[in-house]
Amino acid sequence: MNQGAKIVTESIIGSDFRTVFVAGKAYTVYPPTIHKLAGAISHLSGVQEADNLKEVLLSLGESEAYSKALSWLIAGDENLSEELAKGTYEENVNALDEALSMIDSKVFLKAVSLARNVSLLAAKPRS
User: What superkingdom does the record give (predicted)?
Assistant: First the structure.
């Protein structure tokens, strides 16, 4: 079966998910919707440019931002962020990396870059 057919069939039957572990608890992450992805990116827009997704995540260095972004990817809001913040820095980074592996990393990196550019434009006064 080709990769496209596999992705479509997994999506239809609901088997396209990842299980991540943070602070000894398992969380199920499904492929992010635009809503979930936008919420997660809002907390990750301060990351620096890098060659791969893991380096991007490590560049931020803020566990609070990671737990909020991960909460968005799991639940679609920040309700789990306090619970996820109990996990280690590495657990949150690894969980985010796993959750975001369900989308093309180039798409994610571009979205983060665009979010940062928009925030810079909004912050600059017009002359």
Answer: Bacteria
Nearest to 32 by CA among 83, 71, 84: 71
Tell me how many degrees the CA angle 55-36-108 measures, rounded to the nearest 5: 30
3-class SS of residue 18: strand
Task: Tell me the C-alpha distance between 5 and 3, whole Å.
Answer: 6
Can you give the pLDDT at residue 40?
A: 87
Report pLDDT digits (tens) over 79-119. Answer: 999 999 999 888 988 898 888 887 766 655 666 666 666 65
